[in-house]
Task: structure prediction
Amino acid sequence: MANSIRKHHAVATGGTIATVGTGASTAATVGGASASGIMSATAGTSGAALASSFGAAGTSGAAAVSSGMASVGSIVGGGMGAGAIITAAAPVAVASLAVWGLVKWFD
Result:
């Protein structure tokens, strides 16, 4: 039975654990925090860079990041905190999916 476990299953499990862990640690950090607390917790992360691409047109820097997080969070009915969690977990999920695809292709 142990020999029937394929590499792509192990990669998928690891990727899922990494994505959930990233989301959970971000949620613990930003949960109940003010906008400035969320910004300081996510400063310099790939999630903040991703959020800035969703920011309001004509904004840059912190304004782009905070409006981007709020925009992403509004998709799920939340606000800036929900957006911070989603944008923190998204790069991990995409990277995990890419690795899974490569392993699946060569498995």
Remarks:
- The radius of gyration is 16 Å.
- The mean pLDDT is 87.
- Residues 80-106 form the longest helix (27 residues).
